[in-house]
Amino acid sequence: MGIVIGIDVGISTTKIVGIKNGKVSAPISITAADPITSLFGAFGKYLHDNDINLQDVDQVMLTGVGAAYIDQPIYGLPTAKSQEFVADGLGARFESKLDHTIVVSMGTGTSFVRCDGNDMRHIGGIGVGGGTLAGLARIMLNTSDIKQVATMAKHGNIRNIDLTIGDISAIPVPGLTMDTTASNFANAQSDASKEDIAAGLIHMVLQSIGSAAWLASIGSDIRDFVLIGNLSLLPQCKEVFPALETLYNIRFHIPKYSQYCTAIGAALDYTANHK
């Protein structure tokens, strides 16, 4: 079998990977003004950078919201579409090696996909995600560049923004540590620094996602969660999610290619049915 190309087409960003003989090959991401430009730019760059000829490609698999804009074969190659939630589950399972988990896809908003072996079901989501962070940062920090916000947040002090259990109680509350967040932004003052605000925004978004994921697992025996999407690359994930693990007695996993899991899953959707 030749290479299978998986492409996660966003509105402005396209992620592309190749899978051959069960191995992921050199994923890349391209940002452009629209999904069509982004898709063809990513595809051309991927073939060029990896010295791949069109005849080496067995199949192209598209997924993501931008895939709806594509209704023709890519460069004349066999082209099909994978349901995004199926792609989320397949990619996260492949990368994490977990088959009993909830996949937390942190995109513009956040979706939850429950995986039980080959049974993958979208169980809901919340409207908090990268779009929330970018929008609030645009209003409060005059930038929507999430990398810039993350850099600013490294120099911020979250204690100047969030109210903790220790701030409102002289003794520990059962099941909660003294540094557990009681209320996001409740401690913020009108003269808060941009660095503190950036830290508060990122913590609020990540904490909301992590807590919602745990709530989505209630009624099941799932204790493992796989984080995928661009937000999983934020350095603050290493602070926020371990604290939530302790709070809820659960485990969060960020696989190697976490931002590319949906594209990986799209390719796997084909290979799983054409062995």
Automatic annotation (TrEMBL):
Top-level taxon of origin: Bacteria
Gene3D superfamilies: 3.30.420.40
Cell membrane listed as a keyword: no
GO terms for MF: ATP binding; pantothenate kinase activity
Keywords for the protein's UniProt record, in alphabetical order: ATP-binding, Coenzyme A biosynthesis, Kinase, Nucleotide-binding, Transferase
CDD domains hit by this protein: ASKHA_NBD_PanK-II_bac
InterPro entries per record: ATPase_NBD (IPR043129), Type_II_PanK (IPR004567)
GO cellular component, one term: cytosol
SUPFAM superfamilies: Actin-like ATPase domain
Keyword ATP-binding: yes
An example Gene Ontology biological process: coenzyme A biosynthetic process
PANTHER family for the chain: 4'-PHOSPHOPANTETHEINE PHOSPHATASE (PTHR12280:SF20), PANTOTHENATE KINASE (PTHR12280)
Official protein name in the record: Pantothenate kinase
Species whose genome carries this gene: Xylanibacter ruminicola (strain ATCC 19189 / DSM 19721 / CIP 105475 / JCM 8958 / 23) (Prevotella ruminicola)
